[in-house]
Design goal:
- This protein is α/β, with parallel strands linked by helices.
- About 35% of the residues lie in helices and about 10% in strands.
- The protein has ten helices and eight strands.
- Helix 1 runs parallel beside helix 10 and helix 2 crosses helix 3.
- It is globular, with a radius of gyration of 19 Å.
- It starts with 18 loop residues before the first strand and ends in a 15-residue tail after the last helix.
């Protein structure tokens, strides 16, 4: 049975425990196909949609196409009040390849520019949750928090958080917010899935994943919801179990630990008569802390498959040690 999430001390209300990831919006989902996916997500109980100013700028053409695709649907459907809208700013520019992922843009002026572009593309006056897409360790957390507080005071965002921040920086920001009497970060968007415990470090060293310390912190600090991107491991286990190791060469997930995880996933597909994807996402239903997996479906059938995980009677023992 679906058990909605609630972020304490916010007015966001109940959050369906699977978020819609939208890196493919405007690329693989276009026009009526995109509209149908958004509508289907809402029809099945979903309400949090995650995007970013930089999605999908790595493909030549329209800048900010993911936000634009979402904004066009929101405007035509009139469903803005049914959606918890989460987007991110401050990412390194993706307009030149290869990008320098360390050249983040977190000054107040740069964040203000990204925010205004996001508001325009999304065709909304206010964003529900606005995140720093990366961190800049050279900037004091006090400065970064105050930038977000200004956006709140201007009525342009309701709440704020971070993506790809190290735990020590989140803790610094949390301490400062408590000292100032601010609500503080409501979301930490982080790389996390059934395979991260055994993965090798990814090539992009600006990505931050939820290690044991981060997971323990979230368990003790539910006021900051963990949101997991790459929740389905980029399709690694599907490709590995169906195509063998030749299908997943040169990936950080291909380790001895994840070979064992793959065997367990295969056992669970047979135990419950479900798909590999449903086991991979079902992992999130049995954690000991609230965590919102973000999932970007290929199509409508793939989205329905993912949203059925809450009807599968997984147990914590199914995922013990993973």
């Amino acid at each position: 049975m679906t058990k909605n999430l609630v972020i304490p001390n916010t007015e966001l209300g109940a959050i369906y425990p699977l978020g819609l990831g939208t890196t493919a919006a405007g690329l693989k989902w276009i026009g009526e196909d995109a509209d149908r996916l958004f509508d289907l997500f809402l029809e099945n109980g979903g309400n949090l949609i995650d995007t970013a100013r930089v999605y999908s700028d790595w493909v030549p053409g329209v800048i900010g196409r993911s936000e634009k695709t979402i904004g066009d649907w929101l405007a035509s459907s009139g469903k803005r009040d049914q959606v918890i809208l989460m987007t991110k700013g401050g990412h390194a520019s993706m307009l030149e390849m290869p990008p320098d992922m360390h050249q983040v843009r977190l000054s107040r002026e740069e964040m203000s520019k990204d925010l205004e572009l996001s508001l325009g593309a999304l065709q909304t006056d206010c964003i529900d949750i606005y995140l720093y897409h990366r961190d800049d360790g050279q900037r004091p957390v006090e400065e970064l928090v105050e930038t977000m507080q200004d956006f709140v005071h201007q009525g342009k965002i309701r709440y704020y958080g971070c993506s790809n921040w190290k735990l020590s920086r989140i803790q610094e920001a949390d301490s400062y917010c408590k000292k100032q009497g601010y609500r503080g970060f409501v979301v930490n968007e982080v790389l996390f899935n059934i395979g991260t415990a055994h993965m090798d470090p990814p090539m992009d060293d600006t990505l931050v994943w939820a290690d044991a310390a981060t997971r323990a912190w979230h368990k003790e600090n539910p006021q900051t919801l963990a949101a997991a991107y790459f929740g389905n491991c980029g399709g690694f286990f599907q490709q590995y179990l169906e195509g063998g190791e030749t299908a997943v060469r040169d990936t950080a997930y291909l380790t001895e630990g994840n070979r064992a995880t793959a065997r367990r996933i295969s056992e669970l597909t047979q135990k419950y008569g479900v798909s590999i994807l449903q086991v991979v996402l079902g992992f999130f239903t049995q954690l000991d802390f609230p965590c919102l997996p973000l999932f970007g479906p290929r199509n409508a059938e793939n989205l329905k498959e993912a949203m059925e995980i809450f009807e599968i009677p997984f147990t914590k023992e199914d995922f013990w040690g993973l």
